[in-house]
TrEMBL record:
Domain Biotin carboxylation: 2-434
The keyword Membrane appears for this protein: no
Name of the featured protein: biotin carboxylase
SUPFAM superfamilies linked: Glutathione synthetase ATP-binding domain-like, PreATP-grasp domain, Rudiment single hybrid motif, Single hybrid motif
InterPro entries membership: ATP-grasp (IPR011761), BC-like_N (IPR005481), Biotin_BS (IPR001882), Biotin_carboxylase_complex (IPR050856), Biotin_carboxylation_dom (IPR011764), Biotin_COase_C (IPR005482), Biotin_lipoyl (IPR000089), CPAse_ATP-bd (IPR005479)
Taxonomic lineage of the native organism: Bacteria, Bacillati, Actinomycetota, Actinomycetes, Streptosporangiales
Pfam family, one: BT_MCC_alpha
Superkingdom as given in the UniProt entry: Bacteria
């Protein structure tokens, strides 16, 4: 018998997605949330909600389940999903854990032990080494990949190409592993050149039945984190698919697995040889693509298996129909090295033509406390080309104004010729990055013109004589607006009233212009071409959105004392935080002589480290940054004063 009430021990889009299946099954859902997450979408979507101190607080989560009468707990992914102690605590409290047995989590959660276990079951593994530390430090088979033994999601993974890079890489990986997973144990493996990352979805019940649901290609990655996933893989033949599926089933059987899990393989893009990497003992972020091509609801199957039901189908019943592709929308800035961003969601538009798993709400705040993934846009098509086209169209109809996201980057990626051809490997994104993120990040001229026209129509005060129509006795004059974007300050001239008849001038060329408003929509006509925008204001900042892109502008009149055109740059010795986060390490002291490029401070946000370096040679004269202290984006971390010659 299925449960009456289930607690979801997670947040964000996965908690919203789990609640959706529970609602369809007629099962009540219980959400948990921290004080800062009280207004989050997953709280609104649940039948009940309980505040807890933190998502990793096992006792608080268990207490919330017992207090609300929940019979089972679904952990989603991340947080406690692969925590064997949590699974055991649930069992002690009489709660059903909608995941594998604790013993399976232990066996597969430790990558070192997992490799030994599946190797004994006949599954091929990548050659590598593990702790003690001296074994890692003496590794000489390069290139190599360092991995935390615990955890996943690409956190702490580092590619090392020489022995000289190894000590610093081990230090950084161990620090990240401790912060992210509470365990600094590492392993090292031979790095497979031109690798494809292909994983197999498995399902097992408590009656001895284990099946696989085909594969997902996850080769489009940056910093070892997946960006775009698809099912099925354009690389595998039916024979390889069957062989890898059988190997994944054997890996699951080797640890007495029950529930949904994913066996990840590295596949040589030249030979097709595959090697076991790890098993994720939980639902995967990319599970929707498997659901779309199989027609199965993996969350429902997890719950039914957890309730003791047998799988309702056999391996022979599994069919793959069409193709599905998923893109992860992140709060990050590709133009600044994919550093995390943040802000308040001022306006949200998500497409209705495809599946969108999202934790976003208008008015919600995106901070640095949690993972930067905001939502997933997932498209299905009868074939791969149709699925990619549908995904691109859906991303073009997605808008998150108020927060810088990676949506334009995703559109460039899914339409890249190599992606369209299925010529993928885990290094592709880095190789084509200049094509995906242009060096010139300045807004296009038509967007600058649209922003200036909107600013031109805004009231400048209560006095009707302050209307900026440019009216003069001898005819209308030009008003010059200086618009500051993330790329710099741009001058645009406007005269007339844009909602009646106006002109806009960029680089000396004047064109007729007209603006028509419709709520949050904006139709801007320049000469004989009309573009449609979404727009919203936040104080003095104007946000414009079009075709999946978003731009923010702050207005300045020429001569405005608030003009920030000359704000501190790299040459002034001021070292600023590139993202909102927490200072992890300070590598110098006030009074130290430092060289340009020397590491000074390590800032961490969302379990990702970024090393900030000295902008010039000189003496470290100020050091506001202190370990453990939170910092905002562009906060001053240090000041380097150049020594007089």
């Amino acid at each position: 018998m299925l449960f009456d009430r289930v607690l979801i021990a997670n947040r964000g889009e996965i908690a919203v997605r789990i609640a959706r299946t529970l609602r369809a099954l007629g099962v009540e859902s219980v959400a948990v949330h921290t004080p800062s997450d009280a207004g989050a979408r997953h709280v609104r979507d649940a039948d009940l909600a309980v505040q807890i101190p933190g998502y990793l607080d096992i006792e608080a989560v268990v207490a919330a389940a017992l207090e609300t009468g929940a019979q089972a707990v679904h952990p989603g992914y991340g947080f406690l999903a692969e925590n064997a102690a949590f699974a055991r605590r649930c069992a002690q409290a009489g709660l059903v854990f909608a995941g594998p047995p604790p013993e399976a989590i232990d066996a597969m959660g430790d990558k070192i032990r997992a490799k030994a276990t599946v190797s004994a079951a006949g599954v091929p593994v990548v050659p590598g080494g593990a702790e003690p530390a001296d074994a890692l430090e003496e590794w000489r088979d390069f290139p190599a990949l360092i991995k935390p033994s615990a955890g996943g999601g690409g956190k702490g993974m580092m590619l090392v190409r020489s022995a000289a890079e190894l000590p610093d890489a081990l230090e950084s990986a161990r620090r990240t592993a401790r912060a992210a997973f509470g365990d600094g144990t590492l392993l090292i493996e031979r790095y497979v050149e031109s690798p494809r990352h292909i994983e197999i979805q498995v399902l097992a019940d408590g009656h001895g039945n284990v099946v696989h649901l085909g594969e997902r290609e996850c080769s489009l990655q940056r910093r070892h984190q997946k960006i775009v996933e698809e099912a099925p893989s354009p690389f595998l033949t039916p024979e390889t698919r069957a062989a890898m599926g059988a190997a994944a089933v054997e890996a699951a059987r080797a640890v007495g697995y029950v529930g949904a899990g994913t066996v990840e393989f590295i596949v040589d893009g030249s030979t097709g040889a595959y090697h076991f990497m790890e098993m994720n003992t939980r639902l995967q972020v990319e599970h929707p693509v498997t659901e779309l091509v199989t027609g199965l609801d993996l969350v429902e199957l997890q719950l039914r298996v957890a309730a003791g039901e047998p799988l309702p189908f056999t391996q022979d019943d599994v069919r793959l129909d069409g193709h599905a592709v998923e893109a992860r929308v992140y709060a990050e800035d590709p133009a600044r090295g994919f550093l995390p961003t943040g802000g308040r969601v001022l306006l949200l538009r998500e497409p209705g033509s495809v599946r969108v798993d999202s934790g976003l709400v208008e008015g919600g705040v995106v901070g640095s406390e949690f993972d930067p993934m905001l939502s997933k846009v997932v498209a299905w098509g009868p074939d791969r080309a149709a699925a990619l086209r549908a995904l691109d169209r859906a991303l073009a109809r997605t808008a998150v104004l108020g927060v810088v996201t990676n949506i334009p980057f995703l559109r460039a990626l899914v339409t890249h010729p190599a992606v369209a051809a299925g010529e993928l490997d885990t290094g592709l994104v880095e190789r084509v990055l200049p094509e995906l993120v242009p060096a010139d990040a300045a807004p296009p001229d038509d967007v600058l013109a649209a922003a200036a026209l909107v600013v031109h129509t805004l009231p400048q005060g209560d006095d009707p004589w302050q209307v900026t129509d440019g009216w003069r006795v001898g005819g209308r004059a030009w008003t010059t607006w200086r618009l500051e974007s993330r790329a710099g300050v741009h001058a645009v001239e406007v005269r007339g009233l844009p909602e009646e008849s106006a002109e806009v001038r960029l680089d000396g060329q004047a064109v007729p212009a007209h603006v028509r408003r419709d709520g949050s929509g904006l139709a801007v006509t320049l000469a004989d071409r009309t573009q449609h925008y979404l727009h919203v204001r936040q104080g003095d900042t104007l946000w414009l959105g079009r075709d999946g892109e978003a731009w923010s502008f702050t207005r300045h009149l020429i001569g405005d004392p608030g003009d920030r055109a000359g704000a501190a740059g790299a040459g002034d010795g001021v070292v600023r935080s590139p993202m909102p986060g927490t200072v992890m390490v300070v590598k110098a002291q006030v009074g130290d002589r430092v060289n340009a490029g020397q590491p000074l401070v390590v800032v961490e946000a969302m379990k990702m480290e970024h090393t900030v370096t000295a902008p010039c040679d000189g003496v470290l004269s100020e050091l506001p940054a202190q370990p453990g202290r939170p910092v905002d984006m562009d906060a001053v971390l240090a000041v380097v004063t150049a020594e007089e010659m």
